Amino acid sequence: MAALNGAVENGQPDKKVPQLPRPLRSLEVKYTKIFINNEWHESTSGKKFPTYNPSTLEKICDIEEGDKPDVDIAVEAAKAAFQRGSPWRQMDAPSRGRLLHKLADLLERDRVILATLETMDTGKPFLQAYFIDLEGCIKTLRYYAGWADKIQGRTIPVDENFVCFTRHEPMGVCGAITPWNFPLLMLVWKMAPALCCGNTLVIKPAEQTPLTSLYVGSLIKEVGFPPGVVNIVPGYGPTAGAAISTHDGIDKIAFTGSTKVGKLIKEAASKSNLKRVTLELGGKNPCIVCADADLDLAVECAHQGVFFNQGQCCTAASRVFVEEQIYPEFVRRSVEFAKKRLVGDPFDARTEQGPQIDQKQFDKILELIESGKKEGAKLECGGLAIEDRGLFIKPTVFSEVTDNMRIAKEEIFGPVQPIMKFKSIEEVIRRANSIEYGLTAAVFTKNLDRALTLASALQSGTVWINCYNALYAQAPFGGFKMSGNGRELGDHALAEYTEVKTVTIKLSQKSP
Amino acid sequence: MKKQGPDGNPAPVMPALPEPLKDLKIKYTKIFINNEWHDSVSGKKFAVFNPATEEKICEVEEGDKADVDKAVKAARKAFELGSVWRTMDASERGRLLNKLADLVERDRLILATMETIDGGKLFSTAYLMDLGACIKTLRYCAGWADKIHGRTVPMDGNFFTFTRHEPIGVCGQIIPWNFPLVMFIWKIAPALCCGNTVVVKPAEQTPLSALYMGSLIKEAGFPPGVVNIVPGFGPTAGAAISHHMDIDKVAFTGSTEVGKLIKEAAGKSNLKRVTLELGGKSPNIIFADADLDAAVEFAHIGLFYHQGQCCIAGSRIFVEEPIYDEFVRRSIERAKKYTLGDPLKPGVQQGPQIDKEQFKKILDLIESGKKEGAKLECGGGPWGDKGYFIQPTVFSNVTDDMRIAKEEIFGPVQQIMKFKTIDEVIKRANNTTYGLAAAVFTKDIDKALTFAAALQAGTVWVNCYSAMSAQCPFGGFKMSGNGREM
Predict the structure, then answer these.
(1) Which residues of B are catalytic?
(2) CA distance to partner chain A, nearest, from residue B463 (Å)
(3) ipTM
(4) CB contact under 8 A, A139 and B91
(5) What's the topology of domain A286-475?
(6) pLDDT for res A380
(7) b or e along A97-114 (b: 16 or more beta carbons within 10 Å of the residue's beta carbon)?
């Protein structure tokens, strides 16, 4: 992902190397309550829950625990902010855009604070949080700020004496349930298009990682969004999350997380009020390396593609298919890369990999690693935890993996790279498409024909050619099959956050 | 123009009106090429005047063909494949346009004062309306920069096909004197948003705000050569642009007469693409069921705004017979309430016309109105002993064959005609080679939508006039123009 920090002076890129930013040591966590109507509330039940730093396993602080009654209050606030005649509904579209730009400005201002909080809460390396997560947030906000006054309907030539046009109206109150792997970025991916289109929001951040979302609440208020437009209710899935997905007052829900929970949400949406649903779920993404690929590029991209963010990406390149002829060399170079990967304190500027998010994930990953060993894959390096305390796992590479193994079928969400062999293009297409996921795919080849053939044939929402994780606000992102419903980013997200109304007016006689 | 939102709006757009700057210093009077200031190749300069006082403000370097050639070379270089501008992320182009909007906001008072002194525009209008529109247009186009989509197309046969929407190249842009800064922004904003480079010739009457923008463009960080500004005259610098073999597109706002010359030159030279925003003789149709107060007010502002010097001026007002006399009476009352004077001063409601040529042409047309039998209800002559001021003038009982009903006056002269039926007024409204704008005032939905379809005009207003915004396309049918801006 682009991380251009250099200024542009008279049109020329700044030649000075920018100084690396430093995290804030002893950062005080200021925002730990429920955010409704631009105010901070305690939970109705009085309960709180702890949030931990996965590197140190220490508790950072306690957070107010939202449940159904808090969600109810938030929904009431969001509904009131969405009423006809409210300040938010009356606001000119370009003014909505200005508010989103101002929010981006404040994220830029508080970039170090937010990156520090994100690292404390998730264990992701600080420089990655600063240059990748925060960069994505700022650019996505600015992208959607630009769309706000360009959401156009159409006039339509229907038969007979009618004037017909469409309006693309905001949907209303949108529930957003965000994950723990990119807490702030996934929040912005939902918030930006939702607000751009004029909706109001009730957000439940992941219970493992509420801190950056709550901080953003303070920025929403500072920027001047009217009260009730954005509401944030931290809490757990089965309580606060379920309250959102079943709520009759919520018009739409957007969820990023596991396929298992995504199914529950779609079910709940159907059973309650048929609220519209957008889902960004899991993946078991094929990374196809052809013999004519630039091998260095392919090895590095495949490596970063699976190990980035401690393997905790829905886009993880967790099935690497390598053409037979170059297989041994590819495995050899990949093992070298994996062995060099620096695992440690995410606040250390040299660290490339931090801890896994929590004990549950940690146990699941180690269990899958054991299954790999048991089912006959060849363990090339890693394969176990780093210390006897802590959630750090050694970067692990398996070769000689076959499609029936658990590590070839199940989403691992950890630093484990399974590498398989293939002979022909038709075979690899069939194998790549043979699972119920379909989020991303990557192809490494210099041959134009092969690249375009694979791009058409792969059942994936995104196909990368000679690159990996090239994600930009301008391009739509989402899954085929059980990797999701709908698209985020690009202009497609606008369709997820608007409801089309057709207006047909009778005329006394036919007009041209 | 457009009314703003309620007080409860947490993001208000109308700022408070400050006082104009006293002793404004004009810093930028040279030709702007490659982010640098140049003297004219010929060594010539020309004078710029304040139309309220007829005094010279300063002298500006006079660009001619040789200077245009230099500018085009710079623009062409900045557009080369592999240049900083061509390889810049689209989103970064948007950032630069937003930055430029920030700088215009910062220097709003300077620019508004300059526009008033150079163009004779009321200061309050320049500050609130002109500068407001500039900032909004820049921000609107900034948002489009990274959203210019092509498509993939399912072609027959074993092919993969997709379209790219590429920048045209070097765009020549010729700007008028009635809204110097707004028209400058309307041209550069979409051009830069799409990745083009530009050579701009501001009107010789009003070059100052364009040249000031040169300094802001440099400050914002646009690469050298992306925007070049060559002040000068139409027959010299303007013609050099429309005939240039290395300019890929020309965009012009001005009179239909000159617009035709430009399109001809484009055809004769290198088939450069042409966008034209030309004159109008826009019909404003008022039905008996209209809200009469609103109609009178909109019709008044629709004509008299900026001393009548608007391409969209509602200069043929058709009033349904039953309410004709009352409409005329109220319009006269409204036109009489004017204070003319120095547009920098508070309390002044009408400034001067732009120059002597316009001043004489308007007075000539007023005389023709009197001669040809229209009824002069008020005004009808010049005002004051200095500056190009004309009294707000109202003619009633105007018929379609009079010169004042056919020719674009571009002055504070309002024509009010009578009509009986819908079919008659549609025919009469369309009976002109112009087709820029039109309006209809009625509460009847059927009538409103019928007129929206039947009128041959690029913009049709219902129960309002002059409602324009960066989000809406604007341009003319027939000889009012080619293409759409915004």
Answers:
(1) 277
(2) 18
(3) 0.83
(4) yes
(5) Aldehyde Dehydrogenase; Chain A, domain 2 (3.40.309)
(6) 98
(7) bbbbbbbbebbeebbbbb
